[in-house]
Amino acid sequence: MPKEKTLPTLELFMEELLSLLPYLRERYGVKELGVFGSYLRGEQRQDSDLDLLVDFEKDISLWDVMELEEFLSERLGVRVDLIMKSSLRFRPHTAEKILKSYVPVMENWKDIIRQKEMPKRDYREYIKDILQECEFVRKYTQGIEYEDFLESDLLRHAVVRALEVIGEAVKNLPNELLEKYPQIEWKRVKGMRDRLAHAYFGVDYELLWKVVKEELPILCKVVRDML
Q1: Is 93 a catalytic residue?
Q2: Catalytic residue among 45, 89, 114, 198
Q3: Which of 103, 75, 206 is nearest to 147 (CA)?
Q4: Which long-range contacts does 173-176 make (Cβ < 8 Å, 24+ apart)?
Q5: Left (φ > 0), alpha (ψ -120 to 50) or beta: where does 194 sit?
Q6: Can 157 be counted among the known catalytic residues?
Q7: DSSP assignment string, 61-95
Q8: Is the pLDDT of residue 217 over 80?
Q9: pLDDT, tens only, 137-177
Q10: φ, ψ for residue 201 (rounded to 5)?
Q11: Which is the catalytic residue, given 75, 91, 193, 224?
């Protein structure tokens, strides 16, 4: 049986990020960088991303954000999920949790962690995450045609991101809960996140639109029934 790969530690990531900060400030205008999510709570798995919250000194293009995310992923040896602090205003429920728990990349980060409570997330929190993304997708795709969807780079990127969040959140729901709702192919939903996250050759937006319009409303209704 193959040996499981040793998971990198939060301490290793923090040390590397601290050493990179001067370059990140100069190259990308990074004002602040912080860690949140599973690695901070000690709940990371082999397939977990490293969640980072970033704030910039000035406006930055989407391409620069994607370049920074790719750069950090390569340097840290783990997929980095970069969230812009300015984008949290669109998701107040998520913003409150992230801002309360995240730890800035700075020399005294261990002291900050000791001062914070790092409670394990209840599975109902993941259900709320899913429903929030469902509402986001519904709100911004309602009443528009596929051609309009294709023309908006920002909307396409936002919808892909929302579906990634849904797939990741489903991975954190108890199997015994999912088994009560066999009408949903949960393995497929979980795989959707990985497929989108690693779509190096591009996303099939026609298929994505079909998921948004036909499959996502059913999934969201089932998840709503879980509460």
Answers
A1: no
A2: 198
A3: 206
A4: 173/123, 173/126, 173/127, 173/226, 174/123
A5: alpha
A6: no
A7: -HHHHHHHHHHHHHHHTS-EEEEEGGGGGG-HHHH
A8: yes
A9: 999 999 999 999 999 988 988 898 899 889 989 988 999 99
A10: -100, 15
A11: 193
